Amino acid sequence: MIKKPIGVFISGRGSNLESIINACKDENFPAKVVCVFSDNANAEGLQFASKNNIDTHTLDLNNFEDKGHYEEGILKLLKPYNIELICLAGYMKIITDKLINSFPNRIINIHPSLLPKFKGLNTHQRALDAQEVESGCSVHYVNSKVDDGKIIMQTSVAIEKTDNADTLSKKVLKAEHELYPASIIKLLRK
Ligand code: GRF
Hints:
The chain has 6 helices and 7 strands; from the N terminus they run E-H-E-H-E-H-E-H-E-H-E-E-H. By secondary structure, the protein is of the alpha/beta class. It has one domain: Rossmann fold (3-Layer(aba) Sandwich). A 7-stranded mixed β-sheet has the order 3-2-1-4-5-6-7, sandwiched between helices. Helix 4 links the parallel strand 4 (85-88) and strand 5 (107-111). The termini are close together. The site of 5-O-phosphono-beta-D-ribofuranosylamine (GRF) has 13 residues, from helix 1, strand 5 and helix 6.
């Protein structure tokens, strides 16, 4: 199978990046991570990428005049890789139209809630406060609004009476690690 080149954007821990890189090791997985980008040079996930011989790049927004110039810098870095899909995985910067229009319908994100519920941060505590009986995670296309684009796949997770934000986040994260590779298969295995 010819693997399609993909890029992953992170800002921190990178456990979803890890699950994607590990999924790519299967010869039947339709993608290969060819580069990892981070806005944060100290993102832990960069080390896992390097250990797997994947190119990593970082750019600090503070060194650019504005977000537009920053994203131009990112586009320049990505150009040689001819990537098919950008996977945001815990990437904490809001993406603007400059990047979105350069990769139409080719930027996706994972969010730890059953969208459209609980966009933004602190999703698990908010789900508990709202006395939800289930939560979960969503992979969706990225548009210029936060956590807003069309949903590609979702997994739900039951909320038990004993759950707190920490236990719920662990259960959802486990589901994320299955959902992100499954969504990439859905989009790229054609
Ligand atoms: C995940 O919960 C993801 O859904 C959210 O940010 C977190 C990133 O975790 N967007 P990691 O860096 O992949 O471990």
